[in-house]
Write a structure and sequence with these properties.
It is a single chain. By secondary structure, the protein is α/β, with parallel strands linked by helices. The chain contains 20 helices and 15 strands. It has helices at 3-11, 42-52, 57-63, 95-103, 109-117, 128-136, 155-164, 186-196, 216-226, 247-258, 278-288, 309-321, 339-350, 369-377, 398-409, 429-439, 460-470, 491-502, 522-534, 552-564, and strands at 122-127, 144-150, 173-177, 204-208, 234-238, 265-269, 296-300, 327-331, 357-361, 385-389, 416-420, 447-451, 478-482, 509-513, 540-544. A 15-stranded parallel sheet has the order 1-2-3-4-5-6-7-8-9-10-11-12-13-14-15. Helix 6 (128-136) links the parallel strand 1 (122-127) and strand 2. Helix 10 runs parallel beside helix 11, helix 14 packs parallel to helix 15 (398-409) and helix 16 packs parallel to helix 17. It is globular, with a radius of gyration of 37 Å. The termini are far apart.
């Protein structure tokens, strides 16, 4: 109501208020009894009152309540509305904006309302405490399809989180990071797993329990619940550093996973689970063998010193039964795996007709040429990606690598190759020559990484063979070569390498490391400068050479040329 109209109605006996003066119209209203009507601000104060009652204004006008005793009835036509519009109500964000606010830990009643009113499924990505704040403001999870949370919880918090899932029956994906929650143990994981087991539509689950105090009891309970989810397609569990986890937990987990016939992708990380032995890994192999549509497997057993050939052989048998597998990644660094286990893996790979990617890390395993020969025989002709790490496998010599090179020569589909022979000090020129020849049969080979650190029997002959082959790979886009501590290399080998790189027409990235190759000198710099100068598509260069072997003038010249590139 306009303040001046109110004042006129209160003081003019002829105004339409029943011809009566409104009681109290001449009272002094500037005192504490009427703090909202201070002199000189009446219009603003009346607008404030209008905002206060804005939501009820229609109801008040329609009800037409009887005025207090002695006050005339104000007719509708005598109501004069303020000329200035009321301040707009606070806008409600869209569901997309509300989800973005959640990710920034900005949760309000308005953003929760937007998510609740949104008819479309939504995702929540953020902190677990933000999730709890949203629930406290009334967030409903019936249309939530995915939850990704960073959590700092103890047992009680994990149990409560599991109970929350009872209201989220449309969840298809959860990704929860409990890393380094040192006070989260079996009790919390059991309660959390109980909630997961109620998510009948769940398709993907990822849980990071690195460094938590969970053991076999909690993992077994979680595995049992996962076994009830018939639509589950992807499981990713990181149990790294869960040192209380032993065979009993992994056996129960494997039995649960083996019941999930829809499982397509399996990622399990048991790094530093020192209580895990062949018995637990054998059970895992049997579970994997029951999964008819499994396509990708990633298994990490780093420093599981209780794992040896017996466990790997049963695991390999299970892998060989998963006929749809396309990708196998396994890290056995520091395990007690020897030639028999490696041969079993090769045999299983040979049974997988759709296998296109192999990633196997055998760092510090006591293997010899015999094991690598057997592994090589299982590598199929359709491989697209091959990653093998034999770091510090001191028993490996030329014979094993020559067999690998010959097997690569029978493949035609390779796109990327990553081979680590660091500190395999028995390797010499024959090994690198065989490998290099094997690359030629793959015309689509784009990426090569070779590590021969500390292989001090390699000489210029090996580097020359490699350079020649690199120049023939017309699809080659990136090369990463590390020959540090190969002390027999001289400028002659570097000249051949530089010339070969110059013929790689599609080369875009070159990482070349020859630190502590003390026989390299000025001619090596010139060869690299000339060769890399011919690579017209080169955009990234990283070259490390012994700093003592070339002059400041040469260094400046190389810097100038590379800057021009």
């Amino acid at each position: 109501l306009d303040s001046q109209a109110m004042t006129s109605a209160a003081t003019d006996p002829n105004s339409g208020a029943g011809g009566q003066e409104l009681p109290g119209a001449n009272d002094n209203r500037t005192g504490p009894q009427y703090p909202a009507l201070e002199q000189g601000s009446r219009g603003q104060d009346v607008r404030s009152c209008s905002l206060l009652f804005e939501s009820d204004s229609v109801e008040l006008l329609e009800a037409k309540p009887v005025p207090p005793h002695g006050m005339g009835v104000v007719q509708d036509e005598q109501i004069v509305r303020a000329e200035e519009p009321s301040a707009p109500a606070k806008s409600v964000p869209t569901a997309q904006q509300a989800a973005a606010m959640f990710s920034r830990s900005e949760v309000t009643a308005q953003s929760v309302l937007a998510l609740n009113q949104n008819p479309e499924p939504f995702e929540l990505v953020g902190l677990e405490r933000t999730f709890e704040q949203a629930l406290a403001l009334g967030l409903k999870l019936n249309r939530c399809k995915a939850i990704v949370l960073e959590c700092e919880l103890k047992d009680a918090g994990a149990e409560a989180l599991g109970r929350r899932f009872s209201d989220a029956q449309n969840l298809t994906a959860i990704d929860l990071n409990f890393e380094q929650c040192h006070h989260l143990g079996d009790k919390g994981l059991v309660g959390f797993g109980r909630g997961v087991g109620k998510l009948s539509r769940l398709m993907k689950i990822k849980v990071n329990l690195t460094g938590c105090e969970v053991g076999s009891t909690g993992v077994a309970a979680l595995g049992k619940e996962l076994g009830q989810l018939r639509d589950l397609t992807a499981v990713d569990l990181c149990l790294s550093g869960c040192r209380a986890l032993g065979d009993a937990g992994v056996i129960a987990l494997s039995e649960g996973l083996g019941a999930v016939q829809s499982l397509v992708a399996l990622n399990l990380d048991f790094m530093d689970c020192f209580e895990l032995t062949d018995a637990g890994v054998s059970a895992l192999g049997r579970g994997i063998g029951k999964l008819p549509v499994l396509r990708t497997v990633y298994l990490m057993f780093v420093e599981c010193s209780g794992l040896g050939d017996d466990g790997v052989m049963v695991l390999s048998e299970g892998l060989g039964n998963a006929q749809l597998l396309t990708s196998v990644s396994m890290n056995l660094m520091g395990c007690e795996v020897r030639d028999a286990g490696l041969a079993a893996l090769g045999e299983s790979f040979g049974k997988l007709p759709k296998l296109i990617s192999v990633n196997l890390d055998l760092e510090r395993c006591e293997i010899s040429d015999e094991g690598v020969v057997a592994l090589s025989q299982g590598l199929g002709m359709g491989l697209h990606s091959l990653t093998l790490a034999f770091h510090y496998c001191a028993g490996l010599g030329d014979a094993g690598v020559i067999a690998l090179g010959r097997r690569l020569a029978s493949t035609t589909a390779l796109i990327s190759v990553d081979l680590d022979f660091a500190f395999c000090d028995q390797l010499g020129d024959d090994a690198i020559q065989s490998l290099s020849s094997g690359f030629v049969s793959s015309p689509n080979l784009e990426w090569i990484r070779l590590l021969f650190i500390g292989c001090d029997q390699i000489s210029d002959a090996g580097l020359e063979a490699l350079g020649k082959v690199l120049g023939q790979l017309q699809a080659l886009a990136a090369v990463d070569l590390n020959f540090e501590y190969c002390e027999q290399l001289t400028d002659v080998g570097m000249e051949a390498l530089g010339e070969g790189l110059g013929h790689a027409k599609n080369l875009a990235t070159a990482n070349l490391r020859f630190m502590d190759c003390h026989q390299l000198g000025e001619a090596s710099i010139g060869a690299l400068r000339e060769g890399l100068g011919k690579a017209q598509k080169l955009s990234s260069i990283n070259v490390k050479l012994p700093s003592c072997s070339w002059s400041a003038a040469s260094r400046a010249e190389v810097d100038r040329v590379l800057a021009e590139q």
